[in-house]
Amino acid sequence: MNDTIIAISTPPGYGGLGIVRLSGRKSLSISKRIFRPRRKCWRDISARTSILGDIFDSEKKEFIDEAFLAYFPAPRSYTRENVVEISCHGSPVILEEVVRLGIRAGARPAHPGEFTLRAYLGGRMDIIQAEAVNDLITAASLHQAKISLGQLRGGLSRRIELLRSQVVDLISLLEASIEFPEEGLGIPPGEAASRLEKILQAINALIASYETGRAMTEGLNLAIVGRANVGKSTLFNALLDHERAIVSPYPGTTRDYLRERIKIKGSFFHLIDMAGLERPSHPVEKDGIRRSRELASRADGILFVLDASRNESQADLGLIEKFKKKRMILVFNKADLPGRIDRSKCRAVIPTSRSIGVSALKGTNIARLKNAIWETFSAGESIHEDVILHMRQKTLFEQVSFALEDGLKRLREGHPEEICAEEVRRALPFIGQLTGEIRVDEVMTNIFSRFCVGK
Amino acid sequence: MSQKRFPAQDYDVVVVGAGHAGCEAASAAARMGFKTILITIHLETIAQMSCNPAIGGLAKGQLVREIDALGGLMGLLADETGIQFRLLNRSRGGAVQAPRAQCDKARYRMVMKKWLEDTLNLTVFQGIVTDVLVEKGKARGVKTQDGQSIHGRTVIISPGTFLNGLIHMGLQSYSAGRANEPAAVSLGKNLWRLGLKVFRLKTGTPMRLDAHTIDWDAFTPQQGDDLPVPFSFRTCHPLENKVICYFGYTNAQTHDVIRKNMDKSPLFSGLITGIGPRYCPSIEDKVIKFPQHTRHQFFLEPEGVETAEIYVNGLSSSLPYDVQVDFLKTIPGLDQAKILRPAYGIEYDAVSPTELKPSLEVDTIDNLFLAGQINGTSGYEEAAAQGIMAGINACLKIRKQDPFVLRRDEAYIGVLVDDLVTRGVEEPYRLFTSRAEYRLSLRADNADSRLIQYGRKYGLIGEGDLLAFLAKQEKIRRLFAFLQKEKRCLGNLPKISLKEWLKNPDVSLQSVLEYKKFPEPLTDEEMRHTEAEIKYEGYLRRQEKEIDRIQRLDGTKIPEGIDFQKVPGLTREIVEKLGKIRPKTIGNAKRIQGITPAAIINLGLYLKVRKKPTFHVKH
Lengths: 455, 619
Hints:
Largest sheet of chain B: 7 strands, mixed
Number of strands of chain A: 13
Largest sheet of chain A: 7 strands, mixed
Number of strands of chain B: 22
Structural class of chain B: alpha+beta
Strand order of the largest sheet of chain A: 3-4-5-6-2-1-7
Oligomer: heterodimer
């Protein structure tokens, strides 16, 4: 931590502007050896304002580029150390030269993520915000970037902070009744249990959100489901904009499944094309169908394809019924042909789902379908802050949940407070790893601020 | 005997201050065979209970049991002089049950005085100590106000609130260690000059009332237990409740009077700079901090059997005397009450306990030990616990033996001392059961099995007491075997042992033994112990495992030449600290003030990674 580190902090490649950043005690003195201000003296430089000057190679005695330099003295900087940002022209050659000069003047090349690590260690952000910075840099989709940004702004941290304070409150109430038995403090076991339940609900929701978070980063799986020969593979190809699946007018053409990623408005989806779910006529087909059922039931959402040019069958309705618990869009395909299907009858099975008529073959309404997919399956804005993206966070929350569940169980079984407290205390180190450590002093302070203790 | 009657000037152990810490320290040192002198400002107020007339309570009761298992006096004395006994938290499990007793204050100090006078190797001496004599970084003895030098190979300072004490009543203040007793002013300055970090703390005590002027019918009585539970494992005689306590409430008028006179409070006018205990606030504190409360509870506790003085627990105050009179008038039942001693607040000097080693010896001055309130604690029990530890460690120091340090998982005493020396204090420190990580293991009912071996090792527990303990252990083992062997049917379920049955939250050992009789007679003490051990069994096993794991981690050696700068993720401050102190093990590093748990994890990981063999390719 005593080193001063240097790195190019703009993305690789050519750009209008490139920034080299230094962080550490010697940031400014190193800068002085590679940068010459034009009008001002070094003495006059004030914190957090840019000065114009030139990058200068003192060995070769030549100017490299004109540049702006801004100095952020500790602790009011990104890393809470002395930080210098040098903005010059965004050419990799120039930027690398600046870094080279910086290293010659005493800086050390930064490891990946080291600026953020320092920010974390300097107390500038908590671990969750630090993880979010990393996610933001490597975000795969716009949505993920938004979630990361939300976490960086402290959205998830705030939520964890709230959970933490609820746990502190609960422990305080349990402990108060134990420590001050003559003063009638604390809460009855029933209320402790209902508080525990509430906390557990919030934690379990966060644990569940990990799946959503994972889906956002990797993309949701959407299964294209329907009877044979309704045009699932044609639809698959139409959504992909290129021929991927083999299509034929014959039912049962697709025996295995295909999975491809598409991007709609910045979100990724994995489309899964699979065999029609129908009574098999061939052993190979049978296997394919079994696999399809599995895939469909594991998918995050379903595009249910029906042939609009034929009458709906019991098999169609039965299949919709089977997957009605999933988020689903009813796709009435072959809309270019004369319609014979009773759409309202199909919709009646699953009234909350959207439905849309398309012609996969002609490409009619495919854009609308894409839009519908995004609206139906993309998490949208509603959950952008309350999603956990990291396995580490999820595991910690699970540990917290286990401990609290045990506490709740003991309470319900009628064990005394100190046993329940024992279980709840087990959660504390894990909460400590998610956010600040919970120490006895904090619990005590909480008790004294809530209760008038004092015999 | 002659040395006892005519104090010579050379001692092994010099103890300054005969409060709850000093008495335990001096008694332990003398009984360990060292020539000891106990110097007090006033011989009549040895072991005076300066504030409430009670010993014990949550965590404190456990402490008294631990002091007792080590061979200390407090438990025996509380049993001897107790006038009302209660076991708190009876409705909860054994870990949070704690004995508490109202004691006869006058008898408490007289019996202690007699015991100390009867102790071999111990001289009790009246004087005011002004200086600790220090030569070449080593304490050599003390100097008194009348010019005597008393030499000692070790010195224990336990001055309580007497260290530069300043009493406040309203806007008046005067120098005193306790009402109408002189403070030790010079000693405070002396410690400061010796380079110790001295800071200011504050506490207070309520008024004492004349029992004859209280209308007792206005209050709710609180009886002692039918079957009193003694503090000491060594108390054999039955205990008797001799008094009744009462409780009542303040009201809106009381609070009005207090609010109107707040400008006369030294606390709120800024006269008092010391920090007071939050768990023991004055009545004006409560009124200001909890304006939504329309009443506050208080307790009326007799100070003894042969006195009419009543201690008003909960109404401590540093408001002027006339305001105290006025607000008492608003409380039905106390409207005619006469104040015998007014309430007051007191500020005193304490030394930052982070300057101490875990043995309670001052880090920078050899042979000088501090115990009690001077280390920032409050409470008789906390003081006594430090006293006995300082007493034992002063002797071990003379013997050049390893200090006696209890771990956090072994005893509340361990928690107390560790909290003090590693974390320091900001307000008067009181022990709570929640401060113990292993609360279910640190119980009043098993203090003897945890600590009696140490008491015996240091010669403070007699052979007879040890034998009695071993016999009790044997009997409990037989009871365990019995409960494991005997089975019972519950409805259609398969048979379970009585032990399993007892693990149900609503089943008591009493009811189990009513179902099937154990052939030997059992004391309540043995029943409580067995019940707790069985009810907590699963938790105790889990804690044992964790303790084991932590001890192994704590034992991880830190190589001598290690460069802490190379450990990733340590702040400069921590690197400097580790570099300066150079801890030998992870456990030592953990106990250094300001070392964070995160730093310990980083250090542990670094040591682990370092240990892995590296492969070199030889050319």
